[in-house]
C-alpha cells in the first residue's frame, strides 16, 4: 500500500531492501567483516538458534516463528493453531487495501473531504467499529485475533482490539511487500523537500498564523538566532496542530479538535548481553526471540480504557535493531546488540536488569527526576548496558472508531494534513494527505479569477 513512498524511493534512486533483508543486514550481518558475512551470519547464535519472532503475554510465548517470512513449517503451524482465521483475515485485508487504493485515483483524487472519500470507497464500514466488533461480526474472533492481530496493533500502535478501529487493525496485517530504504526512510522525505524548495529551514518553529484582511496569511517563525514574519497565499499545517505550539488567528477557520494521542516510550540501548531466558519463563537452554511482540492474557480486557497501557506483559515490543562492535569497550570491539523497546512507561534500570538477567541496582542509587538526561542510566554496570537513549513520542492518535475526519481545509487557503492520522497513521497516508492537498491548492490557483484573467 506504500505507493507514494515506493515511487519516491525509485525517483530519488534510493536503494531499498525488503523488510526481511533489512533485518538481515541490520541484525545478522556483521558490518565490520564484509568478507566473512555469510559465515559469521550462519554461526551467529541469533540466526541459528533463536526463533525470529515470539509473542509474549507476560507469562508465556503464545506463538513463535522461526524466520522473518513464513516458511512452510511456520505456515503449517499457523494454520494448525489458528485454523482458517489467518487466511480469512488476509482476504479481508486485501479487500480493504483495494478500497483504500481508490483514494489515489480518478475520479476521487484529489478529495476535498476525507470523510466523504472514506464513505465513497466504503471504508466507513471499518472505521466506525472496533477491531473486536469486526472480528466478532465476521466470525473471526478468537486466539488468532487476540494473539497475532493484537500483537500487531500493540507493536504498531500501542493499542488493543477492544478500542482501535478495525481499519487500522487490518492495516497492521498488510505487511506484504514491506520495504525499507537502506540508511533510513528519512532520506525519501529529505529528497522530496529539497526537490520542492531551496528554502529549507531547520530548527525553525512557526509560532503563529494570522489571516489578514488582504487575504494573505502572516506566518511568524522563530529560530535560535532570529524571528520573522512573512506573508503567504496558502498555508499548509503538516503536523498535529495540538502539539505544534502554533497560534492560529483566523476568525472563520474551524480548528481541529484536540484528540487523545498515545504517549509512546521508545528506549534504545546497547548491551553485550542477550535477553535472559528466565525473564521470559524459558529454560536456560532456550533463546529469547530476536523480535518479542506482546499481547494480553485471556483474562485482561482493557475495553475502551486508553490508560490501560501494556498490561501484564509490561511492554509492547523488544527487538534487536542492530548488532555491531563497541569501539569504546575495554578492550575495544566487544560484540554488542542494540535493542529497541516500545513501552507505555519509562524503562527503568530494574526492568533492564530483569530482562538482561543481571543484578538489580539498589534503589538509592537510582533516584532521579523526570527531566534527567535521556542517555543516563544509574545503577547498571557499563558491562551490562554501555549506552542508552530514551525518547517519548506523541506517536499516533488513539485510533478510536470514527464516522468523520478532520477537514483538510480549515479555512480559506488554510490546510491541514494531520487529520488523516486518525484514519490511518502511517508515513504513506500522511504523504498522501500532503499530495492531495498540494493538488487541491494547485487546482484552485489554476481556476482562480486572476489566472483566468491572465489566460484571457
Ligand atoms: C516511534 C514511532 C514509530 C513509527 N513507526 C512507523 C512505521 O513503522 N511506519 C509508518 O508508516 N509510520 C510510523 N510512525 C508514524 C509516522 O511517523 C507518522 O505517521 C508520520 O511521521 C506523520 O508524518 P507527518 O509529516 O504528518 O508528521 P511528522 O513526521 O510528525 O512531521 C511533522 C514535522 O513538523 C515539525 N513541527 C512541529 N511543530 C512545528 C512548528 N511549530 N514549526 C515548525 N515545524 C514544526 C515537527 O518537528 C516534525 O518534523 C511511527 C511513529 C513513531 C513516533
Automatic annotation (TrEMBL):
Keywords: FAD, Flavoprotein, Glycoprotein, Lyase, Oxidoreductase, Signal. Belongs to the prenylcysteine oxidase family. It holds the Pfam family Prenylcys_lyase. This is Prenylcysteine lyase-domain-containing protein. SUPFAM superfamilies: FAD/NAD(P)-binding domain. InterPro entries: FAD/NAD-bd_sf (IPR036188), Prenylcys_lyase (IPR010795), Prenylcysteine_Oxase1 (IPR017046). Its cofactor is FAD. Residues 69-449 form the Prenylcysteine lyase domain. Transmembrane segments: none annotated. GO terms for molecular function: lyase activity; prenylcysteine oxidase activity. GO terms for biological process: prenylated protein catabolic process; prenylcysteine catabolic process.
Amino acid at each position: 500500500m506504500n505507493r507514494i513512498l515506493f515511487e519516491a524511493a525509485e525517483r530519488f534512486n534510493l536503494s531499498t531492501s525488503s523488510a526481511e533483508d533489512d533485518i538481515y543486514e541490520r541484525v545478522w550481518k556483521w558490518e565490520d567483516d564484509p568478507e566473512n558475512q555469510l559465515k559469521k551470519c550462519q554461526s551467529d547464535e541469533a540466526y541459528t538458534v533463536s526463533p525470529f519472532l515470539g509473542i509474549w503475554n507476560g507469562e508465556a510465548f503464545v506463538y513463535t516463528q522461526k524466520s522473518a517470512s513464513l516458511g512452510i513449517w511456520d505456515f503449517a503451524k499457523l494454520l494448525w493453531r489458528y485454523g482458517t482465521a489467518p487466511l480469512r483475515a488476509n482476504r479481508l485485508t486485501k479487500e480493504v487495501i483495494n478500497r483504500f487504493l481508490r483514494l489515489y485515483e480518478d475520479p476521487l483524487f484529489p478529495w476535498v473531504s476525507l470523510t466523504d472519500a472514506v464513505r465513497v470507497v466504503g471504508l466507513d464500514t471499518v472505521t466506525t467499529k472496533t477491531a473486536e466488533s469486526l472480528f466478532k461480526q465476521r466470525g473471526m474472533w478468537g486466539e488468532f485475533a487476540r494473539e497475532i492481530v493484537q500483537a500487531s496493533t500493540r507493536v504498531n500502535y500501542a493499542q488493543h482490539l477492544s478500542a482501535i478501529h478495525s481499519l487500522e487493525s487490518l492495516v497492521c496485517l498488510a505487511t506484504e511487500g514491506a520495504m525499507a530504504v537502506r540508511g533510513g526512510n528519512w532520506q525519501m522525505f529529505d529528497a522530496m523537500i529539497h526537490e520542492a524548495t531551496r528554502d529549507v529551514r531547520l530548527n525553525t518553529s512557526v509560532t503563529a498564523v494570522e489571516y489578514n484582511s488582504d487575504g494573505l496569511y502572516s506566518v511568524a517563525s522563530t529560530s535560535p538566532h532570529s524571528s520573522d514574519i512573512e506573508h503567504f497565499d496558502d498555508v499548509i499545517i503538516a503536523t498535529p496542530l495540538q502539539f505544534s505550539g502554533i497560534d492560529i488567528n483566523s476568525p472563520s477557520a474551524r480548528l481541529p479538535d484536540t484528540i487523545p494521542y498515545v504517549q509512546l516510550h521508545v528506549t534504545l540501548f546497547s548491551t553485550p548481553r542477550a535477553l535472559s531466558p528466565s525473564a521470559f519463563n524459558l529454560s536456560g537452554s532456550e533463546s529469547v526471540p530476536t523480535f518479542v511482540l506482546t499481547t494480553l492474557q485471556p483474562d485482561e480486557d482493557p475495553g475502551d480504557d486508553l490508560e490501560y497501557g501494556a498490561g501484564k506483559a509490561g511492554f509492547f515490543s523488544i527487538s534487536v535493531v542492530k548488532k555491531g562492535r563497541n569501539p569504546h569497550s575495554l578492550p575495544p570491539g566487544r560484540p554488542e546488540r542494540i535493542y529497541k523497546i516500545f513501552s507505555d512507561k519509562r524503562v527503568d534500570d530494574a526492568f533492564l536488569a530483569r530482562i538482561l538477567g543481571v543484578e538489580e541496582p539498589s534503589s538509592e542509587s537510582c533516584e532521579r527526576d523526570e527531566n534527567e538526561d535521556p542517555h543516563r542510566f544509574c545503577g547498571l554496570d557499563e558491562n551490562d548496558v554501555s549506552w542508552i537513549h530514551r525518547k517519548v513520542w506523541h506517536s499516533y492518535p488513539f485510533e478510536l472508531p470514527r464516522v468523520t475526519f478532520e477537514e483538510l481545509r480549515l479555512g480559506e487557503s488554510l490546510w491541514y494534513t494531520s487529520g488523516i492520522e486518525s484514519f490511518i497513521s502511517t508515513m504513506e497516508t500522511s504523504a498522501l494527505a500532503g499530495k492531495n492537498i498540494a493538488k487541491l491548492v494547485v487546482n484552485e490557483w489554476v481556476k482562480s479569477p486572476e489566472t483566468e484573467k491572465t489566460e484571457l
